Amino acid sequence: MGISNSNKELSTEKINCGGSFNVKLSLSAEPNIISNPTDIVLILDRSGSMSGSAIENLKIGANKFIDIIDESTDSAHDGNIGNGSRIGIVSFAKTAVQDTQLITSVDDLKEAVDALSAGGNTNHADAFTKANQLFDPNSNNAKIMVMFTDGFTTEGGDPSIAAAAAKAQGVIIYVIGLSGNGGIDEDALREWASDPDSAYVAITPDDAELEDLFEDIARNITKPGATNIEITDKISPCFHITSVSVPTKGTASLIDTNTVRWNINELGVNQSEGAVLEFMVQHIGPCSGKVEVNESIDYSDDENNTAYFPSPEITVDCGVVIIPETCPEPAELTVDGCEDTIEFDAGELGMESLGRIIKLDVTLKNVCPNKRVALAAILTELDDNGNEYKRGMKTVTIPAHTNSSCRNVTVRCIKFVLPEDLDVSGSSDSICNKRSFKARFIANYIDNDFDCCEIVM
267 and 190 in one domain? Predict the structure, then answer.
């Protein structure tokens, strides 16, 4: 199954200008066996050459295999093979025996494995035949055989024929060979197994390694959801990331104010598993209205899974914003790559004295639709005695809005220039004295339906 779900969610559908919201990235993965039920037959060699440590280590490896399948099929080590998968046991020496049918009870499977005892010749053909008979040809489950042997065929027919018949019916065959107990026919093992040999054949001279080999095959059958995951989420330049929480799995880091990277070593390898990363985002403008949060989001992992993340939108309500004065036009200049210094004539800029600039914002409440508004801003400066001195007046025409009802209208950045030679703070020690001001605003509708009444005699 690999990646089973991927999502990107926002904590809200709407924010005001400069507002913040939470972004949640979620990812889940599960072993393939959960969504694709599998019937597995363990075919275990109990011939005479397996006596001693070999058969004991075989039992440990087979039981470890059963435990891994148990946990992988239902995300719990609960003693039951879940989600429609089953395991059967076939053991063989001079002849093969179906020690269990395809069942789900872990206890019954382990009991059959632990009851094995070594003795007799080696009949691989009968083992493949008895194992194949356990599969239901009408079942949609995937079908897998895991054959373990430590010796040459010494009894029965040609195993290659029985193995080929099983593969022709869609059965996948893994083969584990123990070469230290008198030798095995490695070419035969490769012929029996599914292709390629590198994926389906494992040979060891040491029976102490059987546990690891059975574990490796079980992990391969359950197929890890994803490993070495990397997600790079880059958001729109209308926003920036203000903080990143610790993810529930893996690590996350800020690449820049618009990009977060999330790395997970593995997800859904042994069981169905999810992970979540959350981070805070703030609107920085100038976008408004319905804005797409994503600029891009990239996903990769070692299994070449594909994860699709939605691109959510958020509504940014900046109201009606009027900026009556534009910023000064910049003078452009360039510095060549090998120049240490440059002289540049920026043109003429008249400066009578140093001073301050005050920028005023004001919000007009409940402005009705389709009516222009005349706005005046009046600024005065106060001396230590509370006397007021005129510092300027500006008038602005506010365009009519077309909202269906009355709404607030924000006017930003009404600028007043205040030279230092107008300072009435009473101190002459510094050009950075504290100065006090008062701002007054007057507003009225320009558009109205007023008509003088006609005088009737």
Answer: no
Report yes or no: 291 and 238 within 8 Å, Cβ to Cβ. Answer: yes
| The pair of three-digit structure tokens given for residue 386, joined into one six-digit string | 């509370």
- Do the Cβ atoms of 64 and 218 come closer than 8 Å? yes
- Is 153 in the same domain as 105? yes
More confident site: 421 or 190: 190
pLDDT tens track for 114-156: 999 999 999 999 999 999 999 999 999 999 999 999 989 999 9
Amino acid sitting at position 110 = K
CA atoms lying within 13 Å on the CB side of residue 419: 6
Q: Quick check: helix, strand or coil at residue 307?
A: coil
Give the DSSP H/E element, type plus range, for residue 360: strand 355-367
Does some domain include residue 90? yes
Higher pLDDT, residue 449 or 90: 90
Angle between helices 106-114 and 53-74 (to 10 degrees): 170
Q: Is 262 in the same domain as 230?
A: yes
- Sign, CA dihedral 123-126-129-130, equals negative
What mean pLDDT is predicted for residues 348-371? 82
Element (H, E) at 84: none
Q: Are residues 181 and 258 in the same domain?
A: no
Report in angstroms the alpha-carbon separations of 335 from 340, 341, 343, 367: 8, 8, 10, 50
C-alpha 165, offset from chain centre: 44
Regarding whether 120 and 45 lie in a shared domain, the answer is yes
In this structure, the strands spanning 38-45 and 86-92 are parallel
Predicted local distance difference test score (pLDDT) of residue 288: 85
Task: Give me the domain span that covers residue 285.
Answer: 2-31+225-318
User: Is 344 domain-assigned?
Assistant: no
| Number of domains observed in the structure of the chain | 3
Does 27 lie in the same domain as 171?
no
Chain Cα centroid distance, residue 52: 50
Span 144-173, mean pLDDT?
A: 95
CA gap 62, 110 in Å, rounded: 8
d(CA 279, CA 285): 19
Cβ-Cβ contacts under 8 Å for 190 (sequence gap 6 or more)? 175, 197, 201
Q: Tokens for 272, please give them.
A: 């169905």
Residues 163 and 39 placed together within one structural domain of the fold: yes
pLDDT in tens, 63-108: 999 999 999 888 778 899 999 999 999 999 999 999 999 999 999 9
Same domain, 297 and 399: no
Mean pLDDT of 228-234: 96
**Structure confidence at residue 321 (pLDDT):** 64
Q: Note the pTM of the prediction, 2 decimals.
A: 0.56
